[in-house]
Design a protein that fits this description.
Elements (H helix, E strand, L loop, with lengths): L7 E3 L3 H22 L6 H24 L6 H4 L3 H10 L9 H21 L18 H34 L4 H7 L1 E3 L14 H26 L6
Helix pairs in contact: 1-2, 2-5, 2-8, 5-6
Length: 231
């Protein structure tokens, strides 16, 4: 079907969209609770951090087994492609453009580092990660330094991400709308652009993944909170 016969292209499957908004919620929640200064809120910092890690693992798996435009092979490009895109500014297919893909990968890496290191650190008052006692004091100290320093990397990337969304919105590219509805205007792309798979089969696969990772996240949260400690 050509773009002249359709008004929109399904780009983002439902699991990808749910991941995006849940992940954003957890990241914001983790930042707010740790910066609140309220010790009692640290329990929620644990929950948000561990759930964010589970979601991150989901996204990595989904990057190989999900629908067309969610797969890393579809949007992760070499530096030369990113430079060419910056010169031309015209993506050939729906989904993440080369520059947007770079932003996605950077965010996933930064938040992944933050979530993983959080499992091994302590605030030296009440809270510590579920695996703090499984590593040496030196290793825990290194993890804590990375955890604290990496905050600024995350803040910078989030700000750049938001500025990019605003810039594209001004240009008429409704990125937020597409991540809510799953569809992008067909007239922005070539007539032979394929649609993303978003049927019951792929949603059931996502549900299986979510249940499995959810159980692991619940175990980690329970392991931490039942000991009266968190990261």
């Amino acid at each position: 079907m050509s773009s002249s016969n359709r008004s929109a292209i399904r780009v983002w499957d439902l699991p990808t969209r749910l991941f995006h908004w849940l992940f954003a919620t957890c990241v914001i929640g983790a930042i707010v609770t740790v910066k609140s200064g309220n010790v009692l809120w640290m329990e929620w910092h644990i929950r948000f951090g561990i759930i964010a890690l589970a979601l991150l693992v989901f996204r990595i798996i989904w990057g190989f087994t999900g629908s067309r435009y969610a797969r890393f092979a579809n949007f992760v490009r070499c530096p030369r492609t990113v430079i060419e895109y910056l010169r031309s500014g015209t993506p050939s297919l729906p989904g993440h453009n080369p520059l947007g893909a770079l932003s996605v990968v950077a965010l996933l890496l930064a938040i992944g580092v933050q979530a993983v290191t959080g499992l091994f650190v302590s605030d030296d008052i009440l809270y510590q990660g579920p695996f703090y006692n499984d590593v040496s004091g030196e290793t825990a100290a290194i993890m804590r330094t990375i955890h604290q320093t990496n905050e600024y990397v995350i803040f910078s990337l989030v700000i750049l991400h938001l500025l990019a969304i605003i810039a594209y919105t001004i240009k008429g590219k409704r990125l937020v709308t597409a991540m809510v509805t799953g569809d992008a205007p067909a007239n922005l792309y070539s007539s032979d652009s394929p649609v993303a798979r978003d049927d019951i089969g792929i949603r059931l696969w996502a549900l299986v993944l979510a249940i499995g990772l959810g159980m692991v996240a619940w175990w980690l949260i329970d392991k931490t909170l039942s000991a009266g400690m968190s990261f």
